[in-house]
Specification:
This protein has helices at 19-25, 65-76, 96-105, 118-125, 154-158, 174-183, 212-219, 232-253, and strands at 3-8, 30-34, 50-55, 81-86, 109-113, 139-143, 164-168, 190-195, 203-208, 225-229. By secondary structure, the chain is α/β, with parallel strands linked by helices.
Length: 254
Amino acid sequence: MSKLILIGAGPGDPDLITVKAIKKLREADIILYDALANDELLSYSKPGCIQQFVGKRYGCHTLSQSEINHLILEYAQKFKCVVRLKGGDPFVFGRAWEEIEAAQSAGMEIEVVPGISSALAVPASQMIPVTARGTNESFWVVTGTTKSGNLSTDIQLAAQSSATVIILMAMSKLEQITEIFAAHGKSETPVAIIQNGTLPDQKMITGQVKDIYFRSQHAGLQNPAIIIIGEVVSLARELSVQQQIQQLLHHTDK
């Protein structure tokens, strides 16, 4: 019986892959990998392993989801172990369930290796906590773009809460999102946008709901990026200022 292993590649930095994921990559006869999975991770595969890029980034849909499902079934007839390497975690907007259903229909064995989600790791890489005692009591992770291509209606609900709101795949709808938050009295709420999080070419801007769209336009930010809206963003700002002051005092002492 052939096996499908769904592996989370983490947020981008290849060092953030899990030990279990590395072990499972070594078992693969073929790896179907996404645009958001770091190419360096392919080096863990065994000699002779086939590596096929299948896209799945916003604006970079090399193959449709149905075509990927078909590939999984096609390769399952030829190979014992098919690996799907997905950015972040397979179950966080990774369409993993659609691939599981396809594999189940063919009687394949299925295994899932969780990955570090970019929704948590990317803010953390910039010292932005998604929760902080006394500041917020929950966080939302929302997709900016639904299957139909529209803005998720959950954004309206999230904008009414005191939670940290983390929005993925949403840069093309940033202006619309800020209008929704402003309509719910959140114009002054801090916002951070992080592009290519955890990678060497990472870029981050901060601002408020009322000005973040213009700041992002000026900075030229685009996907892949994560939008963080909430008071926790200000905690990272405060820490940065404190560190700068300490560095300045240390330099003065010298």
